[in-house]
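Continuing from the previous page...

OK, I double-checked the sequence for PX-domain-containing protein against my notes and this is the correct one:
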Amino acid sequence: MATLPRTSKLSNASPIHPPSVVASSLFDNPVPVPARPHSEFDSGINTSAAWTEHRQLHTGTGSLSDDEPDTDDEQQHGRPARALYVFEGKTEFRELSVDAGDEIEVLKEELADGWSLVKSADGEMGLLPRSYYTFTSDFIAAPEHASTQQHGRDASTSTITPAAPIVPQTTGEWRNAFPSFRHNLLGGKSLNRFSSFVTSGAEEWVLKGSAPTGDDGPHAGHAKEESAYTYDEDNRLSRLGMGEADRHFVDAGPAWKTKLPPFRVLVHSPSKRTSTLSGAYTVYSVTSLFHASSSIPEEGADPESEADYTPPNSPARITVHRRFSHFVVLHTALTRRLPGIALPPLPEKQYAGRFSTDFVEARRGDLERYIGRIVRHPVARYAEVVTFFLGCESDKEWSRQLPLHLSLPPAGPSFYAHVFHPAFNVDAEDATDAVARFETHTHAIGRGVQGLREIFGRVREARVEMSKAERLLSYSLLSLITSKPLASAPLTGIDEDDEDNGSTGKPTVGLLNEDGAWCWREGCEDCLVLTKALQKTSEGLQNVADLYDDHARRTQLATHEALKNVAHPSSMYESVIDTHKSTLSRYTEATRDGRADEEMAARCETVLNTTMAEMETYHTQKSEDFRAIATEHLDGEISFYEQVLTRLRAARNAFDTVPSPSPRQPSIYERELADPRLGAEPLPQPCPHVFDSAPMRPVSAAIQEGVGMLLGSAGREGRGSVFGKFW
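Thanks. Re-ran it with the corrected sequence; updated structure tokens here:
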């Protein structure tokens, strides 16, 4: 079998400098280009030739970046153009507003989905639809995309860096509602046309490499290196020194080497608060729980011994308070700094009914599962932004440090430059076979889990129906021993003329004796004992009915929610699979006879180590997840049936014990015979997964419903909401 080449040093090409500041919208949805309106303005110049090649618009994190230095003077200074139509841009999407006739400068013409990066006369930069302007310079025939030499295999790595900081999402802001709605309609899929191989920086790393700067100097990134751990006193959650969190190590396998031991995070105690700036919002308590061990592993110790490590003098738990927008910031920063990692999707934002008790509890569970998967990942859990998110207890310090984390540029190819692994750690044929098997396996698991979620929902509904049946049985038995009619009860085989209850005017003497016993004889002790035992049985069945209903609404709902942890693995790891396949293709080019490129093949080995380490992480987490879900379900069922057995045994024992000869006391359920509690509230359902598919509808219908929601009654929040239908 072919083996990837040995490690070699990077070429002496100029390093790729990371962008200083990156603009970002916190939604993972590109903006569709609006239709070109009719305009009376005429620039008097023909429209330019249509662009023929897309450029990168990185919608995975909503950011724009530019790692490719421009050498062409026209690209540096832009091409003069003039706006043809009025366009009102949205600031959250970094769009530029222009009037017809405005003079602009086109910095980057060929962006994804028909957008261009332009600059206005006053120096403001932003995005503008390509069809909304025309160039004012003299036109020549469009060359065969003069990019044959300039672009070649590097064409797709060109990106842009507007000098503007990213803006954190504001909870409750209406203007960002429709991007999230489009995300829901598409079942969590992005409209970005570019593969993750491009957007993650893997292609640029494979083609050009990267020379990271810093105290460590340049790294080849292909030989395994040991790291020195240092403890930062200012951050009790991290024992990693400055820059150490950006270095990632792969052991043989390949599998990520664990630097920081796993720990547990709870999201609990949600509370509603109000701010004069952002209005009402919900705050959640986030508690990190650590192991009790306080020993520090010595340098060179067995890595397995590090699993019991806890930073010295660290408390057993740390609690901070975070709102949903803070989780958005965390997710955005992680996506930018760890482009090669398969991160879990962040729960969707809610705009209608977001303060209802059911939704707040569902959101709390989703956030706990999200942060739980982050801290379970062997690389993501020691990221600087994660330790900052979980450990910053001071609001003042949070406000001071947050802009620093938001201003960090996307890692891009430098992420792979900081991945260290043993040489010859991946076999090309094995890597090809592994990704094919992994893709098939994750697709099959996705389909199977979707079916399991559907069936589990039916099981919960069946438990509610069983609750109704047990309750009806209880009422029927109580009606029998008390001779009180049960409202709406079926009277199969009974003639109405044979009814001899009080409603017919006939005497009721003989139905019950003076002691309340089910007998026509006075002072019958045997019937008194029997009546009390049957009444105990009826009350026990009521308790069993309550257990069935509560089990479906609480215990089984938690399991139903937990199934989202294992849903849609193919969507979550789609970027890893795409990067892996594309890297294998580049490796084939690099090892082709007569065109062998040892350095490029070595960089391919780094990317393949990363993707296969991610596959191994999924393998480990899949086993843990399904084991946890199955055991929790069985434990819940065992506990449920044990409680049912306890009630049934108590009812059974009533027939073997001799009660006091005192008269029977009426049951608390007798008053319900005239109006039985058989109509249960709708069974609460788990919030949909981000990647769950939703029925597509015309945009006009969606907008019409959205406008109707805005103009509708405030007291019907969520019911008529276009967003409420997806929750």
